[in-house]
């Protein structure tokens, strides 16, 4: 049994990782800025703690006695990060450096970091994208993720603290409560309410959607990984366009959606699909939930 700290535990991915850790027999401190951990059910090996990620003293104190740290905190979103790049760096990069330094001081075994497979690479040269693909992000969100990966590498070389970054595709699934992020939950909510679905561009943008429970399994697998790799793509290895997602949701709803197309946004790359062979070979991980099944589960959950 390991003692794990999940930062951002009340969030969509964080709550799934917390549940997966508990199911694997570990003890978890679930930390988030909220007071009501509505996304988590009580458990004898679970302690919930309200924590400000940017409070260095509180974070250092919380790290005492922890073996694994899951860094799932983010203060910005891809669509808005370019609007205030300085805040993106100050809150995410600087906060992460303080976290890594505190982890070294407290003797943490390893850190697992939620990076972004959808934004760190930028426009791909070819699909699917491998971990050694050049990285030229076109949003601050992706650039700060890369900066955190870089500082983690530097700190490991200096102090021996390994950090494994999971470059996650587009996570989806039940219990996604964010009303503004994620095409699938936003589209489901709008379709259920018979609202117009807004699509930026022509609807042919392709993304790699991966079920959140598969993401959680990848984090726990990476926590026990002792090999040389420090970066893993975590996706499905296949892509789906926005038009395709709408069509599948229309089939679930039994009616046609009302669509409106807006001008394409400059920060949206046309397509991204992740090569997941490294994770398959090194972590013995692969997505287990079929996209159609996962979409149906998400639809039912959002009733």
Automatic annotation (TrEMBL):
- Residues forming the NAD-dependent epimerase/dehydratase domain are 4-235
From what superkingdom does this record's organism come?
A: Bacteria
InterPro entries attached to this UniProt entry = Epimerase_deHydtase, NAD(P)-bd_dom_sf
State the pathway, as annotated in the record: Bacterial outer membrane biogenesis; LPS O-antigen biosynthesis
So what family is this one in?
Belongs to the NAD(P)-dependent epimerase/dehydratase family.
- Protein's name in the database: NAD-dependent epimerase/dehydratase family protein
Organism annotation: Thioalkalicoccus limnaeus
What phylogenetic lineage does the species belong to?
Bacteria, Pseudomonadati, Pseudomonadota, Gammaproteobacteria, Chromatiales
